[in-house]
Write a structure and sequence with these properties.
- By secondary structure, the chain is α/β, with parallel strands linked by helices.
- The chain is about 40% helix and about 15% strand.
- It is built from seven helices and six strands, in the order βααβαβαβααββα.
- It has helices at about 30-35, 40-60, 80-105, 120-135, 150-165, 175-180, 230-240; strands at about 20-25, 65-70, 105-110, 140-145, 195, 215-220.
- α1 (about 30-35) packs across α2 and α3 (about 80-105) packs parallel to α4.
- The chain is globular, with a radius of gyration of 18 Å.
- Bound molecules: farnesyl diphosphate.
- Farnesyl diphosphate binds near residues 26, 44, 47, 86 and 198.
């Protein structure tokens, strides 16, 4: 199946005002599998299918940026076979993305500390970037892999400090914009809406800087069970919020 196949328009109904950037912490795969007596990796495989479906739906309803937390800097602590299964899913979906991106005008990109990933995955990410660079005004589907918000900010601070050390930049010229430009998300707007399924109510080191003014939406639904109508419910909730960005 193609990564960004369109599907029936009756599968969920989009709310009126669609956020420009939606980010998701894809949580609950392990519990979904456990409930079915399946190995955790089966939960991740189901979660990856949900990613395909919801990323496609997001694009169909006009979301420009759809970003998911796929593997954190802490996830290496999981059993090796679970880590291997996740890496295999990344391989498979990146290969599909390379085939489908142009047809669907979706730029699939990966952000995080990528240099420790297996070389073949890094090559696939480079291929994705190459195809994406030829797209005209695409929608963006971003996978955060080996991503940690604190790690990202630490890397930005380090790069800025190096510029100060070489005299390229003076400390008083460092602005919030300087920091934003040194994050993995430099070319993306901050997320408007961050969704966390599975009943956990925490941020878990996801987009710490970028989420300063994001709206959060939490639901008990486990990620593999997450459907277009759940995204609609999150967007409807977003539309009821008054975003004041610190004003009145
Ligand atoms: C958290 O659920 C989820 C992860 C650590 C991995 C998420 C990755 C995927 C859904 C695969 C994505 C692949 C592509 C190609 C997008 P958990 O395992 O911690 O769940 P639990 O809290 O129920 O144990």
């Amino acid at each position: 199946m193609a990564l960004f196949d369109l599907f029936g328009k009756d599968e969920g109904k989009a709310a009126q005002q669609v956020p420009q950037h939606i980010a998701v912490i894809m949580d609950g795969n392990g519990r979904w599998a456990k409930k079915r007596g399946m190995p955790r990796k089966a939960g991740h495989a189901a979660g990856a299918e949900t990613f395909r479906r919801i990323a496609t739906y997001s694009k169909d309803i006009g979301v420009k940026y759809f970003t998911v937390y796929a593997f954190s800097t802490e996830n290496w602590k999981r059993p090796q076979d679970e880590v291997d299964a996740l890496m295999n899913l990344f391989r498979r979906y990146l290969k599909e993305a390379i085939e489908d991106m142009a047809k669907n005008n979706v730029a699939v990109q990966v952000i995080g500390d990528l240099h420790v990933l297996p070389e073949d995955i890094r090559d696939l990410i480079d291929e994705c970037d190459e195809v994406a660079s030829g797209l005209d005004n695409p929608a963006y589907a971003t996978l955060c892999i080996n991503y940690g918000g604190r790690d990202e900010i630490k890397n930005a601070v380090r790069a800025i400090a190096q510029q100060v050390q070489t005299g390229e930049l003076s400390p008083e010229d460092i602005t919030e914009e300087t920091v934003s430009r040194h994050l993995y998300t430099a070319d993306m707007p901050d997320p408007d809406l961050i969704i966390r399924p599975s009943g956990e109510i925490r941020i878990s080191n996801f987009l710490l800087w970028q989420s300063a003014y994001s709206e959060y939406y939490f639901t008990d639904v486990l990620w593999p069970d997450f459907k277009p109508e759940h995204l609609d419910a999150a967007i409807a909730s977003f539309n009821q919020r008054q975003r004041r960005f610190g004003g009145v």
